[in-house]
Structures are given as C-alpha cells and as structure tokens.
Design goal:
Length: 157
Amino acid sequence: MGNLFQIRNNFQDHGIINFTPQEVINTGADLRDVKLTTMYCLQQVRTGLNRRIHLLRNGLTTGNHVSPEHPNGEAVDFHLDFKDGPVTPDTIRLLRVLAIRAEFNGLGFYFNGVAYSFHLDLRPIERYAEWKGTKDSPGAGSWKIQTIIGNTANIFA
Ligand SMILES: [Zn+2]
C-alpha cells in the first residue's frame, strides 16, 4: 500500500485533504515509517466527523506504546480541536462508527479527567478491540484500561 514518504508531495491527490506531511513529521514520525492507509483511513474519520483532528506528539510511530501497530505505522493517537465544540457522548459514538466504517480494528477512547484523546489502529480484524482509558487526574501516572463491549454510550459518565 505504500508509505507517506512516497506521496509526500501529493497528499491531496490521495484524498488526504486535511493533513499535511509537516503535521505528521511534527509528531516525531518519519514519513517513511507511516503507512499511507493509516492517514487515508483517518481522513475518512475526519471528513465524517467534520471536526479538526490534531495528531499527538509521539502519536504515530514514535513514543512508547503497547500496540505493535504504532511502530508499524498503522496506528494514530489524536485529539479533537476544542474550538469545534465539546466532546460529547454523541461525538464519541459518531467517532466510533466512523472509525469502524473506515476499517480501523483497534479503537481506544481516553479521558484524563479534563481532555479526551483517541487511538485508532489497523490491526487485523481477528484482533478487533475497543477499550477506554481513564485517569483519576491528568497528572496521574498510567492509564486505567477497560475493554468496551460493543458501544460507547456514556462510557465516561
Ligand atoms: Zn495509540
């Protein structure tokens, strides 16, 4: 399928209209290491959600992650721009539907008590998983991870 370096001057031609090579590089990633499919699928989510998505620093191939899809260039961590409105249960529900439709098979929903962030990855369907991560406070050390079965309704209520 190729990597982002191969299309570095042609993101738009590949339908990736809301993300730039520089945004990817700013996460710490090398364009060569990120699968084109990852950003293509994220663009589907971005378009359906119609909200700005900010890639997190070390949210692509760099940083420490449990999911092997990160170093493989098949996972992305991001948050939504607060200027586009609050993240509500409906926002999360729509994000989930769009992510599944875009064929992401690993879906993580995180809330640190103040802000939401999200993980999507392209693991094989056989390992399909959804989970939520919470913290008692933004400064708390590690995430408490819980599996979600089938829906996200009020998971952070
Ligand atoms: Zn992640």
